[in-house]
Amino acid sequence: MANEKSDNQIEKLMDAPLEFVKDGNQFLNKCKKPDLKEYTRIVRAVGIGFVAVGIIGYAIKLIHIPIRYVIV
Amino acid sequence: MSTATPPGGQRTLQKRRQAQSAKDRQAKQTPTSTRSAGFGGSSSSILKICTDEANGIRFDPLIAMFLTFGFITCIMAIHFMNKVTGATF
Amino acid sequence: MAGFRLIDVAKPFLPLLPEVELPFETLPFDEKIVYTIFAGIIYLFAEFPLVGVSKDIQSFPINDPIYFLRGVFAATPRTLLEFGLFPIISSGLILQLLAGLKYIKVNFKIQQDRELFQTLTKLFALFQYFVLANIFIFSGYYGNNLTIVQILVLNAQLIGSGLCTIILSEVIDKGYGFISGAMIINTIVISTNFVADTIGITQIKIDDADNTEAQGALINLIQGFRSKNKTIVGGIISAFNRDYLPNLTTTFIVIIIAAIICYLQSCRVELAIRSTRARGMNNVYPIRLLSIGCLGLLFSYVNLFYIHIAAFILIQLVANNDPSSIICKILGHYENVNNILAVPTFPLSLLTPPRSLIGGLFSQPLTFIVFTLFIVSTSVWFAKKWQAISGSSARDVAVEFKDQGITLSGRREQNISKELDKVIPVASSTGAAILAVLAACGELLGLKGKAAGIIVGVAGGFSLLELITLDYQQTGGNSNLRAVLGTPSTSATQF
């Protein structure tokens, strides 16, 4: 009896990831994927934003270098 | 069994009890986050910590930012002093 | 201890902690930008060497045990930002998770409880800065035989900079900047690091003969053509596979990962909705694949950080990194690589991504399984819990629908919650799993934290960008940043 129960639990434990993968797959199939035009637009927007912020940040770091040389 | 069916309510006692307990559960439930209580805060993809103004030592944001900047300048000054005097501590 | 609540711990500290005032009214869009950028700049400026430690890198007896976690939390070793944003992010995530799962009793409807909870979060973050600083100081990370003055000065610096970081992120959180301080600062730092790694022109000394190479991979390639100490071919090869500084291969992988996230970000399931008030008002409600964004991965990395810090305490502080002691036999010990990194050996190395793919395949094949499993399982677990508690669960969305007079087409109004419950949890956990797998793949290719970093940066940036564009549409009438922000990505704000 107990054995059977633990078997069940193991089965349940094994089932959980399988179920998860199945659900996930189903969801992905239902997903509306972006078309090329939308995708390039997003990539461009993100790329410009990311690099712009990064360059501002890097400019600050550049100011940092001489200060470090003078002070440290 | 003795109570009469309220108008518009569920017919059978069991269903009525179920409806009642569901209502109770909802009333008892406290919100699980600041957002679900309706005061902003973390959403599903955003982690937000500060939503309310607690009674601490209050700062204007500008002063707060100057203070943090001042802290960094302090560290720089100590560095500079270290370099000038040659002392390491 | 009936009636004891964890948030009451924060009560005595309530009057002591600094607190930024809430703005009287919502700030104009441009002012928010200024505040946000300045907060980011000040944070970047704090990347300054610590006072009181030796300046010569070679002389440090203990190397960096958490080098592969730094990219995610905007931390830089041996500077004021030694721990970066980690304490803030971890205390925010963990306390909110515990409160949501009712392990901490907080009634978010009461203002005082919210204030206490917020103070507790800050206090816990500060406490973590304190503990981490002292772990690192007493492990000998900043040098052996520190004097008491040195210890005090180091403590003051590390905790002080922690407090500064908390205040900076609070300024943004409180509505002077955009949305969330910790996340936006993290994104700014990650993008800065990306730019520095790609086109950074800083010259860094690479050997004793005073040869220097540029930090940026692309700049290094260009310099390779006219370098005196290398042939052209050698320069090109080294630009792709040098391992002491960023190389072009890692840069490419990072860009590919970023592109994949951009694709995933626009994957969504669209549910048809209609208005209950007006006839013929049909629309779609998108449920995004990455609906919990980067938080699942952040949570995994918070866990990794705790595990590695705990191991560091045991191995370095207790067992003194002595391979013959019993703790090191159980947990493994640290090996010094390149004089900068402390790389753990077997059991602990299971949770440490390898430094290169090939080397990793031979020396630690089990890591590939264990590390991936760990990241995926923690991410998915977190995603499931977080979507339920964070105020965007199926029930919350159903309530929102009801308030706005919307219903799913072809469904009864009472069933909205159930219908959504079939989609939203699956979406968030699938999204979290995919991001985790992506991060694990990148990390196992030997990116030393850059893969997870770029995922947190881009996915977090997306979540922020969406809300920022919303803000822009509402208040930024005459702002001149239209070109930078670009067009709004699809969001749930169409109605």
How would you summarize this macromolecular structure in one to three sentences?
The complex is a heterotrimer of chains A (72), B (89) and C (495). Chain A has 72 residues and is mainly alpha-helical.
Keywords:
heterotrimer; A: 2 domains; elongated; C: 495 residues; Preprotein translocase SecY subunit; 2 domains; 3-stranded antiparallel beta sheet; two-stranded antiparallel sheet; 56% helix; globular; disordered C terminus; protein transport (chain A)
Descriptive report:
The complex is a heterotrimer of chains A (72), B (89) and C (495). In chain A, 90% of the residues lie in helices and 0% in strands. Chain A has 72 residues and is an all-alpha fold. By secondary structure, chain B is mainly alpha-helical. The radius of gyration of chain B is 29 Å and the shape is rod-shaped. The mean pLDDT of chain B is 77. Chain C is mainly alpha-helical and 495 residues long. Chain C is 56% helix and 7% strand. Chain C has 16 helices and eight strands. Chain C has helices at 29-45, 86-100, 111-138, 148-176, 181-199, 217-225, 232-241, 248-265, 295-318, 326-331, 357-363, 365-389, 394-404, 416-444, 450-475, 482-485; strands spanning 18-20, 203-205, 212-214, 268-275, 282-288, 334-337, 341-344, 406-408. Mean pLDDT of chain C is 83; it is low at 486-495. Classes of the chains: A mainly alpha (72), B mainly alpha (89), C mainly alpha (495). The interface between B and C is large, with 44 and 88 residues. Strand 1 of chain B pairs parallel with strand 1 of chain C, so a sheet runs across the interface. Chain A: One of its GO terms (cellular component) is Ssh1 translocon complex. Chain A: Belongs to the SecE/SEC61-gamma family. Chain A: Pfam families: SecE.
